[in-house]
Amino acid sequence: MASKFVSVATALVGVTLLSGCLGIKEHKGYVLDKELASAVQVGVDNKASVEKTLGRPSFTGQFNDSDWFYVSRDTKSVAFRSQKVTDQEVLHVHFDQAGNVAAVNSTGKELVVNISPVDDKTPTLGRKRSFFDELFGNIGALNSGALAPGNAPGQ
């Protein structure tokens, strides 16, 4: 009886530990409806009709608002690892000067780039200062002539 209890408890602990390795799936951003996206037509629609059909974009162009982006991303993360992109869709709607749709482009996961930052220090110019140099280095460096009577600003 005791060995059966131990084996059941061990199995439960094992299942509990392995459940953390299943991963978490998340959807981030816009929920893209392909039928609505295909309804946006070049030369027919304008900003108002696109906003009425698709809603406000995820973000607009950085330098002007003639580019609208609808971004949808699905990710998966396992335990303590980084998130991995499993699916991504970006709908780019470009407008002309009059506000009419000039182009509609759709891209996927092929534009996702994984960047691995390096933990090395960034080299800087100048001299190296220790903690105590930074802390006590400015003592006595104040120009005492600047605080003399008659030299204060506004006098």
UniProtKB/TrEMBL annotation:
Keyword Transport among UniProt keywords: no
Top-level taxonomic group: Bacteria
Gene3D superfamilies: 3.30.1450.10
Residue ranges annotated for the Outer membrane protein assembly factor BamE domain, each copy included: 29-103
Official protein name in the record: Outer membrane protein assembly factor BamE
Alphabetized UniProt keyword annotations: Cell outer membrane, Membrane, Signal
InterPro entries, alphabetized: BamE, BamE-like, BamE_dom
Lineage: Bacteria, Pseudomonadati, Pseudomonadota, Alphaproteobacteria, Sphingomonadales
